Amino acid sequence: MKQAYIYLRDRQVGILRETDNGYSFQYKKEYLVQPDAEPISLTLPLQEETYHDKVLFPFFDGLIPEGWLLDIAERNWKINNRDRMSLLLACCRDCIGAISVIEIKEEE
Predict the structure, then answer these.
(1) CA gap 88, 100 in Å, rounded
(2) Which residues are CB-neighbours of 75 under 8 A, at least 6 positions away?
């Protein structure tokens, strides 16, 4: 199972997971109770319930680079372009914008 902490600016807001059944995203309860909590996307509004989907959520898929930058990432890290979660983990730790995707290592 691949997992990542999702940050909005400098605040950890939730966890994204890839399992055998697909993908899930859940906001942290500690984040949801903050008066200034805001959703990471209009397609993922604030809620306590976990989001589930068979494919990577379009918001996260849209963070993955395209074109020549994707080609470089695929070659350097030897990642198949169909392995969207691995590309997200490799390329989006410090992506443009307010969102960061930080891989959760197995020992954590």
Answers:
(1) 10
(2) none
Q: Give the pLDDT confidence score for residue 46 in this predicted structure.
A: 98
- Name the CA dihedral angle for 28, 33, 34, 36, rounded to a multiple of 10 degrees: 100
Spatial separation of the C-alpha atoms in residues 5 and 79, rounded to whole Å = 20
Q: What is the DSSP string of 69-84?
A: HHHHHHHHHT--TT-H
Query: pLDDT tens, 24-59?
Result: 999 999 999 999 999 999 999 999 999 999 999 999
**Tokens for 74?**
């695929």
Residue keyed to tokens 């307010």: 98
